Amino acid sequence: MEYQNKRGGRVKLHSILTPPSEFEHYEKGDALYAMELALSLEKLTNEKLLNLHNVAEQNNDAQMVDFVESEFLTKQVEAIKKISEYVSQLRRVGKGHGVWHFDQMLLNEGA
């Protein structure tokens, strides 16, 4: 929004649909399910950023192209890669005790 205002644009905020509740899904609390949802969201975000990048290119807005590339796209690709690794690991460990070890690994990464 700050960037939009700097460029003389106007920010319009719209309501966002509420995602389905975790309690409405039979796999509630399942780590693999949560990571797969997170991966889907990251991929959707990347797709939207690429669309924004294309619009900026089509309108010869080099500053916006650079802004999207430098501020978002690299980080987005890194996030997709990391969450994809988590999904692969969770598929390998299965449910139960393996998920506990996965949780411990995540805790140690943050330390």
TrEMBL record:
Fe cation binds at residues 42, 76. GO terms for biological process: intracellular iron ion homeostasis; iron ion transport. GO terms for cellular component: cytoplasm. It catalyses: 4 Fe(2+) + O2 + 4 H(+) = 4 Fe(3+) + 2 H2O. Keywords: Iron, Iron storage, Metal-binding, Oxidoreductase, Transit peptide. It holds the Pfam family Ferritin. SUPFAM superfamilies: Ferritin-like. InterPro entries: Ferritin, Ferritin-like, Ferritin-like_diiron, Ferritin-like_SF, Ferritin_CS, Ferritin_DPS_dom. It is an enzyme of class 1 (oxidoreductase). PANTHER family: FERRITIN. This is Ferritin.
